[in-house]
Amino acid sequence: MRTEARQSEVLWEESLSLFPGGVNSPVRAFRAVGGRPLVLSSARGAAVRDADGVSYLDFVGSWGALILGHAPADVAAAVAAAAERGMSFGMPTEGEPVLARLIQSAFPSMERMRFVSSGTEAAMSAIRVARGITGRTRIVKFAGCYHGHSDALLARAGSGIATLGLPGSAGVTAAATADTIVLPYNDLAAVRSTFAAHGATIAAVIVEPVAANMGVVRPRPGFLDELRALTSRDGSLLIFDEVITGFRVAFGGAQERTGIRADLTCLGKIAGGGLPLAVYGGRRDIMDTLAPLGSVYQAGTLSGNPVAVAAGTATLRRLASGEAYALLEQRAAALEAGLLEAMRWAGAGCSVVREASMLTVFFTPQPPANLEEAERADTERFARFFRGLLARGILIPPSQFEAWFVSTAHEAEDIARAVAAAGEAFREAA
Fold first, then answer.
1. The domain that contains 153 carries what CATH number?
2. Which of 194, 274, 297, 300 is at 20 to 30 A from 417, Cα to Cα?
3. Residue 39, pLDDT score
4. Distance between CA atoms of 335 and 406, rounded to whole angstroms?
């Protein structure tokens, strides 16, 4: 007797005929963990539902964008109201300064800013501005830090590249990355020697102040301070890519936590309330090199889209009081403690790295300090762990090299449920 295919299977087969690998972003394909990807249809709070009506407790959170959970009522209402007024204008709108002031209140270093549509666009544009104002060509980045898929920055980029085991990307020419210097994250000796040899030609250092695209990897004490000192001394710019950490590790991101003021900052994800919006900005004199004031060109038809601006504004207004961060810390700390206990109980021999409300379970005995150490993780065991959690209704990122994200929608019982499932999944992954 023939069984009728489930709706998820039908949709997935159709997607395979329409999109490369069936997806519109590579990590979604589940290639690193096996099995068919979920095809989602709806979400609310801390849960997502697939096309067959199966519910999963979600720790992906649109890859960190949904700090308030899925479809919070006030954000959804703001989006609906904005859409009623008009979907896009291609002109300045009254909502743009409101969101910009909220961002400035969190990031005082962003004296001027520009809205764009993606983190890739923000990082690419920040690099162009840095080269334009300094007249220099070289960029320093760190292996495992992902700054989007623009050619110059897609070298040892972590995230999906690490998941797929690719060194970079076909189609990126040697010329495109010739001026990109890639160093190990947390390696101050390498940074110092690079500045000693090339300091006069370095336009900028771009860094994730807390790496989250090789899994969560914390900066060692003094690492970010030294980057600030070296760039200031040699006339280079320091760019903090806070697309993930901005509004996540604190309202003012890593800059609030560290007290370090970047010359340029890239924001995304939470800044748009889960809609396509990103931001780059910094010192007034730097940003005023952009057209129409200066000679550095960047433009975008959908930049400052009013619906995305409304979502970002509603989200940041909720976060501005700071109350959400106490709850996020409580929930994330409980998840970390529970996972560590579950590991010990299962004899898993893993490690957990947490920074505020994002964390990674590494299948390594010690927390990694850079991409080379992260890549020593046992990805086959991770894949078994992932499948064990998914079978129990827990969705985490389908990659060893990504972060889990806790939202304000996660309740204490959600954390307990995830920990219990992890204990069983750890034993199955052994």
1. 3.40.640.10
2. 274
3. 97
4. 9
